Amino acid sequence: MSSRVKVVVTGAAGQIAYSLIPRLVDGKTFGNKIVDLCLVEIPQVVSKLEGLVMELEDSYFPHMGEVTYTDNFDEASHDADWFLLVGSIPRGIVYEGKKIEERSDLLKINGGIFVNQGKAIGENGKDNAKILVVGNPANTNALIGKNAAGKDSQLWMAMTMLDASRAKSVISKKTNTNVSKVKNMIIWGNHSPTMYPDVENAVINGKSGTEAINDMTWVENAFLPTVQQRGKSVIDARGASSATSAAKAALDTIIACENTTEAGDCFSAAIASDGSYGVPEGLICGYPLMTLEDGSVEIKRDISLSDFAKERFQLSIDELSSEREAVKHLMK
Ligand code: NAX
What we know:
The protein is an alpha/beta fold. It folds into 2 domains: 4-158, Rossmann fold (3-Layer(aba) Sandwich); 161-326, L-2-Hydroxyisocaproate Dehydrogenase, Chain A, domain 2 (Alpha-Beta Complex), CATH 3.90.110.10. It has helices spanning 15-24, 49-57, 73-76, 103-124, 138-149, 161-175, 209-213, 216-228, 230-238, 244-258, 307-326, and strands at 4-10, 34-40, 64-70, 82-85, 94-95, 98-99, 130-133, 155-158, 182-183, 186-188, 196-198, 203-204, 207-208, 267-272, 284-291, 297-299. The chain starts with a strand and ends in a 6-residue tail after the last helix. Residues 10-11, 13-17, 40-42, 45, 86-90, 113, 134-136, 138, 159, 162, 191, 231, 241-243, 246 line the site of ligand NAX.
C-alpha cells in the first residue's frame, strides 16, 4: 500500500472546506499516510488559499505532505487518489447577471463545471481514484462527472453520509442510545428532501429497527420530515448551510472507503446503479455500501424493503430520473 495519498479539494475557500481540509492531514482520516493536498478554487478567490496554506503550515501536522493551490483543475487532477468535489454554484447567488433560483438553472450551470472536471479526472486521475461529490445537486453532478470521465475503474460517489449521520442522531435520541449503536443506516435515493432514510433496516443496539422503534407513526410524521428537512432547519437556525457536519460526513465517507466494513453494517453514499433494487442503470443513487477486504466498494444486496419503503424510495428514484433527463444534453 502506498504511503502517500494525493487529495484534490475543490471549493477550498468555502465554509465546508475550512472544517474539512485540516482534518485530512491530522493522521486520522488516512492513518499513517502522508497526505499531499491540492486545493482548487475559482480565479476570483483563489488567492485567499494562500492564507489557508499558511494556517495549515502553522498547525503542526506531521502527516501533511506537499500543499499546493490553483484555479486550474486540469493541472490539479494529475495522479490524484481522491477528489473531494465540494465547490459548486449555490442556489440564490447572482451568476453571470442572473439570480439562480430554479433547480434547472442550478443543474445547467453546475453541469457544465462537472463535465470539465469529470474529463480531467478521467484523463489525469489515478485509475482507481475515488471521487466524492459534495456540491449540490450532488447526485446529478456526480452523474455528469462520471459520464465525462468515462473510466469505470474510478469510483464516483455523491455524499449521503451526512443524511445517515443525521438519521442516526434522531434515532439515538428517540431510543436513548449512543449514536455508535445505530448501525446499517441506509439512505436510499437522492441527496434531496425526497431521500428515504430507512429505519426498518437499521440495527439499533443489536435489534432490528422495526422492533426497536415499533412506531411507524413516529417514523412517518416525525423521523422522516426531520431528517429530510434537516439541511433547511440548520440554514434557518444558523443563517448558513451545514458546514462542520458536512465536513465530518465527508471524512467519514473516506474512512468508510479506506477500511473494511464490519459484518452487519454498511455505509451510505450514492453510486452508479447497476440495476440493483430496481433503480434504472447508471443513476447515481443512495445505496447501502460495503468496503470489502480487497478495498473494492460494493452495494449490499440482501436488504428487503417494505411496501412503505418501496413507495417512498420510488419518489426519489423518479426525481433522479427527471434530473438525468434535464441534463441529458451534457452526457455523451
Ligand atoms: P461555500 O459557498 O462556502 O463554498 C463553495 C466554494 O466553492 C466557494 O468558495 C466557491 O468559490 C467554490 N467554487 C464554486 N465553483 C467552483 C469550481 N468550479 N471549482 C472550484 N471551486 C468552486 O459553500 P459550502 O457551504 O462550502 O458548500 C459547498 C457545497 O456543498 C454546496 O453546493 C452545498 O449545497 C453542498 N452541501 C452538500 C451537502 C451534502 O450532504 N451533499 C451538505 C452540505 C452542503 O449543503
